[in-house]
Every structure is written in C-alpha cells, then in structure tokens.
Amino acid sequence: MASPSRGPEQIMHVTLGAASSSAQASSPSQPLTQPSVVGESWYASYVMRGYTPGHSSVHRPIGDCSETVQDVTCTTRTNDNPRSALKRQDKAGLSDLPRPELVDALIEAYFDRFHTFCPILDKKAFFTSLHEGTVSVTLLRSVLFVASLHCDLEVLHRMGQSTRLDANHKLFTDASASFDMDRDSSRVDMILSSYLLHYWFGNPTAYRDCHWWIAAAIRSAQCTGYHRSTANSQMPSEQRSRWKRIWWCLYVRDRQIAISTGTPMVINDMDYDVEELVVEDLADEPIEAAQYMVAQVKLNKAVCYQSRETKPVLDAATKIFDLVENSLLYWTPEHFPMIYVSALFSAMMALAVDGNTAVPKGDQIFGKIRRGLLALKQFEPVYNLARWIRNFFMDIIKRSEQEGRAHEQERAASPHVEPSGGSIHPEEVTHSLPVIHGDPASYTTPGMGLEDTTFMIDSEDAAGFWPEYMANGVFSSTHSGDAMDFPQPDSTQYQAIFIIDVLLFEHGLIVWLYLLGLATIGAAGSFSTVDWSRSTLFNYFSVDDTRSIEDIRKIVPHATRSRSSTQSLESTGKIDHDTSPANILAACKEFAAILGPENVSTDQADLITHSGSDYQSYAWTEETAVCSHVIVYPETTEQVSELMKICSRRQIPVTPYSGGTSIEGQYIPHFQGICVDFSRMSRVVELNKDDLDCVVQPGIGWMDLNEELAPHGLFFPPDPGPGAMIGGMVGTGCSGTNAAAYGTMKDWVLSLTVVLADGTIIKTRQRARKSSAGYDLTRTFIGSEGTLGLVTEATLKLAVKPPCEAVAVCTFPSLRDAASAVRDVLSAGIQVAAVEILDEVQMKSINDSALTTIKWKEEPTLFFKFSGSDDFIVQHLAKQVGGITKQHRSTAYTFASDENERNELWSARKNALWSMIAMKKSPTDKVWTTDVAVPMSRLPDIIEFAKNDIEKSGLLGSIVGHVGDGNFHTLLLFPEDKRHVAEGIVHRMVDKAIEMKGTATGEHGVGLVKRDYLEKELGKETVDAMRSMKNAFDPMCILNCDKVIRMQAAKE
User: Fold this and answer.
1) Under a CB-based contact definition with an 8 Å cutoff, are residues 913 and 931 in contact?
2) Fold of the CATH domain 581-677
3) How do residues 930-941 score in pLDDT, each as one tens digit?
4) Is the separation of the CB atoms in 1007 and 931 below 8 Å?
5) Which UniProt keywords apply (predicted)?
6) Cα gap 849→74, rounded to integer Å
7) What is the number of other CB atoms lying within 10 angstroms of the CB of residue 680?
8) Check: CATH 3.10.180.10 for 804-1016?
9) Residue 758: phi, psi to the nearest 5?
10) Strands, DSSP E only, in 39-154?
11) Tell me: the pLDDT tens digits for 586-608?
C-alpha cells in the first residue's frame, strides 16, 4: 500500500513527523473573516468560502441547525499553506491517532476491502499526500473510520477496543469533530470526508445520520460543479475521470439509500449532465472493480424509473453476478466487504421480479438467481446475512409455487380497472394479505452475538452499524443485549417481506421491492409511515387514493408492463460493448489459457486479412480498415463455448469468420472486439452413407467436402463460389449453380450445433429426415449470418452423384431473348440441373482474362447442365432445351457429355467474378457484386432494366446469374470516386426487384449493405419482430451486431 521505497510503518512515522514539525513551525497571524453562504435546505446546510487570495476553499455542514448565516464565519491566516503539511488542530489533531502500524493496517483494509467496491478516492494521490505529510487530517480520519468496518477484529483489539462497535463509534466521533474544526482542507477533501462519514449508522434519531452526511456531500459537490459536464472544460483527461468518479459514487449511494429507505432522493435526474462513467475512467483500478462500479451506476439509474424497460436492470444485475463469480476465483470470501452481499441481494431481486418470468414460477425464478444463491453459499461462513438472504429466496421460491394457482385465479376473476391515480397506504397492503404459515424445519435462523464481525448491532440503539430500515425492519431486536434474531416465516415482519411475491414476482415491478418490501417494515412488527407521494417511484398514484392490494394488482400490469411482440429500433437500448484496452488484454489472457497462445493472434497482417476484401460490396481498403482487436482460432465446440462465456461476461463484440468469401460485409468487424476464425474446425466428424448425411465442422469448404465424398459416390449439392466454407454457407443461406434442381442451403441442413451468445450449447434437432417436434430452430439459424449464434457443427443431407451428366452452351442476340428462353424451358417442365446466364460484357472479360482455354462468342450466353440415370435421358433433355432456345433466336448451341469437355464449358461460369477482377484498370478499382431474385415471369424484365441502367451509368458492369430460380447477379467495376454511381445502380435494381414482388438478395445475404431494404421488402412490423428475436437470442448484441437488421440508428 506504500511507496516502493518505504514500508507501511514508515509512512505514518514520516507523516506524523512532518505534521509535528509543521505545527512547531507555524506562527500566529491575524485571522481574517470571510462571508459564508448557507445551503438550500436545513438538512443539507453547508458553509463555503470563495477563492480569494490567501484563503483556501472550505466546505462543511453547519454543526447545529439553529445556526444562521450571521452566526457563521470562517477564519484563515494569510500566510497559511494548508497543503504544505499536516497541522495539529485545536481539539483533535494527529496526536490521538492509533499507533502508526495500526493506522497502516486500517488503511490497508480500506483499500483492500472497501475501495475495491467504492473507488471514490484517488489511491495514488492519497498515498502521495500521506507520504509527503500533506494529507487532509479529516479525510485521513474518515478513511480510518470506514476501515474499522472492514478490518480484522484483531486490529481493533490492538487499538484497545473490545468490540467493533466501540472502535467504530470512537473513530467516527474523532472524524466528525475534525470535520467541524477543519478550515484548511480543500473542498474536494471535505466532500470525500462527508461521503465516507455517511457510512455511520448510529442512533436513527441522531441529527447527523447517514442521510445528513450524504446530502452534505452531494450539495457541496453540486456547488463545486461536479454535476456538470466536463466536455468543454480545459481539464486534463485524468482530472475529468476523477471528476466523474466522485459524482457517480455520490449518485449510486444517493439512489441506494433513497430506494432502500423510501426517502426522497437528493439528486434530481434533470439537474445534472455529467457524462456517464466508463471503465476507462477507472483505469487505475482492477478491471473487475471498474466493471463492478459501472454496473452499479447502470443498475441504480435503471431501477429509479417506473416505466423504463427491464433490460438495462437485468443486464446490470447479470454483470454483478459475473463480477462476483470472477472475483471468487481469485479471492476468498473473507476479503469481500459486506457490500458485496448487498449487491448480490439487489441483483437477485432484479432478476427474480423480471416481468418475463413464466410458469412454473418457482423453477423460473430459481433458474435466474441460481448463480447468486451459489455465491451466497460461499459467503455464509463469513456473513450471516448471506445465509438469511439465501434462505429467504428459497422460501419465496417454494411459496411462489404453492400460491401460483391462487394468484392466477384471482387475476382471472378481477375485471380490468383503468388507472386513475392514487397513493398506496401500507395499512391497506397488510390488511389484504393472508396469513402465511411456513415450515419451520425448512428455515434456518442464525444466531449472532455483538462480537460477531459481520453485524455489529447494538440492540439499545436499534441499529449499530445497520441503517434504520435494516435495524428496525428486517431484523427484530430480542433486547437481550447479546443477540439478534431474523424474522421467522410466520412473523408479521416476514409477512411484510412476502409482499414481494404478491406484488412483484407476479407483475415484474423491480423498484417496488425496496419500497413495499423493505421500507414498510417497522420495529416490533408494526409498519412505519412512508411519504409515498414524495417518491418519484410512485408518481403514478395520487395522494388520496386508498386502493386495496387487489386494485393494485389490476392496475400495475397495465401501467408498467410492455405487451409488445415486436421491438422497434426507437425502443431498442443503446449498444454497450466494452472494448477498452484493459478489458481486451484481460480477455486475451483468458483466451490463451483456453486455446493456447498459438491460437490467439494480434498480428496486424492477420487482423487486416480478417477485416474485409476488395471484392465485397462494402467499402473497404487496407488503409481505412476497421480491424478486430484479436483473432482466435478454436478447434472444438467446447472451446467456442468458453470463448463466448468470456465475451458475454466482458461484453466484447464477436465477429465470426469462416471462408472470408461473403460479399455484403458479413465479416466486417465494425464494432472491433474479437474475430472467431473457424478455419481450424475443418473435420468431417461423421459420415453416415446409408442415411445419406454427414456431420461436419464449419471450417470445411464445400469443395473439400465433395472431394472426401466422391469415393463414396455422394456429393453435397450447394455450390457457391470457390473458397466458401460450410459455416458461411449456413450463415448466408446460400445456394449456387445447382439451385435450379437441388434448391438452397436451407434444403440440405438437417441439424445444427450452435453456441449462443452466453456460451450455451444447443442442438437444433436430431438426424431424422423429417420432424415436427417444436420450433424449427435449424432454419432459424440458417441465413442469420452469425447474429443469433455461432454454428460449430452441421448435419448435412447428401445426394447420390448422378451417373450421367452433360453441359450445353447457347448464345443469343440479346439478354431478353436469353431470359425468355429460360422462362419457357422451366415452364415446359423440363428438369435441368442448372441454368446460368452471362451477358456479352462478362463473356468478353472471360476472353480478355484468359482464365479458360476456349475462345468464347461475346454474346449473351446460357449455360445448361443436365443429369440423369443414363445417357438417353440426358440427351433427350438436351434436345428439348435446344428446340426451345431456337425459338428465341439462339445463334449457337454446343453440347458436351465428356467429363473434361463439361468441366471446360462450365469453367466460364465459375470464373466470372475473377475475370471481372482481372479487368481492373487500376489497383484501387473496386468490384461490386450484388444479386436480386424475382418471380420467373418477371426475369426478362428485371434483367433488361438492370442492363440498360448499367449502360447509362458509364461503368463497366456485367449480368451473371442462376436464372433457373429467378436469381441473377450484377458485377460492377469502378474507381472509388465513382462508388456513388455504383450505389445508385444497386439501389434502383433492388427497388425494381421489390416492386416486382421479388427480394433484395437471393443468396448473398444481407450483412451491412442491404439491411435498410428489409423494411421496404417485408414491412416494418416484420423487421421489428426480427429485432425482438435477435434481442431474445443475444440481449447484449455481441454477436455480429447491427448486421441483417439495425440494432442502433444509422449515423447521419
């Protein structure tokens, strides 16, 4: 905890020495009187001095509420330098501090056990001032006071204190007295001191209770300007982060105290505009501690609004679970302050009352809070409160099942009542509750003495170190002076807590928990009076309403619960990823532990390769590429699951990558994060020849798969571009040249093994050729482009390779003639295996690029493929097609059945894209490949429309496509400064296709490029339904986020 050059004991010796010498050197001088200003309200009054030459800035609460502005003056000495050294004060200087080694032990306990979860202090600045002897005496005493709550009991015994309560009371008294007399500390130090002193939970009737201290800290911070944005200030970044850290720590405690006690909040959400706290603002803290604090801010912001959706609350609550679990891997429960138990309690409540909880209610609640229950189990040996909370939840879960049917019947029998305003009176609530008799044998009541280091409750004060709502509510004093009892299941107090089940678990109202479940509980079984109308949480009800609990049941669901089946873009929450360097670095260490360092890459060339390509339609160059932070190469489903658990816990975005041949920007890592490359998952896991199926990993290419299948006389029909892998083919739902006879990827996938966003592994179905069991999740994931889950295995259907095949090539004077010939061939019922179209521009590019050995006629050309059980059938089909093409002015018709000749003829189609790339006039020229599909009857019209538009644009472009199913492509070649021209061509072609009842993409998928066309094609409601589905599978939007459908509004 000390400077590297000095041990802990030396620090306090140096500090005391510096203070002593400074005090001796001080000389008296004439005091000056400065005017003072009294604060806004009596319970948060303060005095402050302005910045004038020779005077320091001071802030302190007024000692007695009877003081007036005329009574209060502040004095300073013109030659004083309050930051030069510690000064002994009139009443309480440094002489009465504990011995230096005890002070060091207390400071160590503060930073080890309290600061980790409440990092309001700047650790580096504090230790620097401590070492130099310039630390604020008041702040030092406040730190020691808080440390006494968390240090080992042995330290307090060495201070001469018999109990923790005695030690805490003494240190608080000393710090409070120092606060009153302090005229030298800076305003920031006084804010921090006041904040720390609010952890005093002494006599509830005391004037200076925790509310007084926290309000004083907040009001002083507001006067200093901590509630204002620093965006336009000249502060260095480090000071801005400290500014935000102080404000949000104050905010969190204000919300926690107000919500848990039912008292008004000091901070008005309309009165501050400081930027939100982010992990980078806590760069000097461990990543888990920083994430914990950010999650606490989000949780407390979210629960304070009645109408806000529950997703932010649930995300924050889940983050608390993640941090606790991660911390327990490195720390023992003894190192955790009890604030962690309180955080678990809040998180479990937020999850348990989620409005999505379905029947059976007990099972659903248990599933959501199970992680919290397991963590509490580990805390039980240290904190008895953890045992009580765990038993409380288990009892609630059991009761939920017992009373579920009764609640459903009551709700069904109650007519709908429109909300008309009103307030809730605790008396009405209690009179409406039936008496609940629990099973004593199933409930454990821990006993605690005053010496127990976990509670420290003084029965005479009815509080000790507990806030009033806990001392007088959740716990009932036995008045024996040496023990405390928890409320039993048949007690009145426990009945009040069980309101949670009646009002909250049924309707999913998160924030009612604190006010109805805790604030209404009073001492000796009575209910305290709460001014409900003052709380912003109950602004829905007017002051004079006296509804019964049955009326509340009717009103609440209609007032707060969303019943929408879809999710609009406007109602979608902000995407919240954490790609900070510290988080990524910590994640990389975890990745390496799972995969091995050789399977984790941050090489720049590797990052660029995985960031995009020249032949995709999304604008990309190596110079402007947005790269992932790291590439990972898993080899098993289990490894992918562990990777996703890490990314889910750390909120790191994930981009899947298989062959890298997608065209519409599917693997562009525009949120950065990590890229999961499946190229090392390339095995054929299982081949079932008799069943005509196989199980493969996503990193195997379709061409490689067919090579392995060929000796068995089998093949996998979908045949997109060379280099495509099964994972990407599943993701885009692609097809290929065989689509006319064999269909698309959706027709050839039996089952998928998928890793979801949180690391859960699911299998969509069994291997049976048909099944009507449940939802068709297989087809849900096909075409989802990695936005719903990561495919780690696919069970594919296989086909028997036809024994006889033939290829025919015929040319036409115009594209319309060629397209019309295709329409008539298919209308005649002739079964062709494939039919492809290439226009004259494409044929010329194939000739110029010399990628084939044949010199082609540079005219619109059709390529037909025929297959059958014998040569006679194949030749008969070819003759029928030849006759139809002649009717459409075919100028040539070439037929080949020899395998080498077939492959040579068909090679022109397979090299279409590469031949266009070879036509680039400049290395910086781009190729835009896009596709649409229309009903077959409109195929000639859309092709002619696209062809004319390309010719008018002045760009070099060709028409290519699988016209056998109404799908065709355009390949556009252009310099970067003509990208807007290419965009216009694509936009008009897509609009025309949709106008013709077609689709914006036949097989390339949506990615980043075509997502904005979905609303026009499918309607806003359908897209909103898709967004709702995306949110269900991936609530944090970490999987290929913002692709297929937008999850955040487009930037202007």
Assistant:
1) no
2) 3.30.43
3) 999 999 899 999
4) no
5) FAD, Flavoprotein, Nucleus, Oxidoreductase
6) 89
7) 15
8) no
9) -95, 5
10) 47-48, 59-60, 74-77
11) 999 999 999 999 999 999 999 99
Strands (E), 747-846: 749-755, 761-763, 790-797, 799-800, 804-811, 834-838
State both tokens at 59: 């802030």
DSSP state of 451: T
> Which tokens is 488 given?
């039993």
Residue given tokens 């950010």 in the structure block: 294
Lowest mean pLDDT among 94-103, 198-207, 766-775: 198-207
Q: Residue type at 210?
A: C
In angstroms, rounded to a whole number, what is the distance separating the alpha carbons of residues 65 and 295? 37
Residues 377, 382, 387, CA angle at the centre, nearest 5°?
40
- Report the residue count for the chain: 1052
User: What pLDDT does residue 913 have?
Assistant: 78
Is CATH 3.30.465.10 what the domain over 684-800 is classified as, yes or no? yes
Query: What confidence score (pLDDT) does residue 290 get?
Result: 86
The angle, 0 to 180 degrees and rounded to 10, between the axes of the packed helices 123-132 and 8-25 is 60
Phi and psi angles of residue 631, each rounded to the nearest 5 degrees, phi first = -110, 130
Average pLDDT for 111-129:
87
Report which residue type is found at 129: S
Using alpha carbons only, how large is the chain's radius of gyration in Å?
36
User: Between the CA atoms of 1020, 1021, 1027 and 1028, what dihedral angle is there, to the nearest 10 degrees?
Assistant: 160
Instruction: Determine if residue 895 is left, alpha or beta; phi over 0 gives left, psi from -120 to 50 gives alpha, anything else beta.
Output: beta
CA angle 1042, 1048, 1050 (to 5 degrees): 95
So where are the chain's domains?
Answer: 8-68+97-215, 319-446+486-560, 581-677, 684-800, 804-1016
Q: Is the peptide bond before 717 cis (omega within 30 degrees of 0)?
A: no
Q: Greatest CA separation found in the chain?
A: 120
In contact, 799 and 743? CB cutoff 8 Å: no
Question: To the nearest whole percent, how much of the chain has pLDDT over 70?
Answer: 69
Backbone angles phi, psi at 1039, to 5 degrees: -95, 110
Distance CA 1034, CA 776 (A): 18
pLDDT at 404: 54
Confirm if 459 and 484 have CB atoms less than 8 A apart: yes
What is the 8-class DSSP label of residue 577?
-
Distance CA 347, CA 153 (A): 29
What is the tens place of the pLDDT at every residue in 889-921?
Answer: 998 888 887 888 888 888 888 788 788 888 888
Helices and strands, number each (H, E), in the chain: 36, 24
CB count in 10 Å sphere of residue 505:
27
pLDDT band of 55, cuts 50, 70, 90: very low
Tokens of 461: 């004060």
DSSP tag of 181: H
Dihedral (CA of 271, 277, 282, 286) sign: positive
What's the DSSP call for residue 163? S
Q: Name which of 116, 872, 149 is nearest 456 in CA terms.
A: 149
Cα dihedral sign, 480-481-483-487: positive
Cis peptide before 360 (omega within 30 of 0): yes
What is the Cα–Cα distance from 336 to 386, expressed in whole angstroms?
Answer: 12
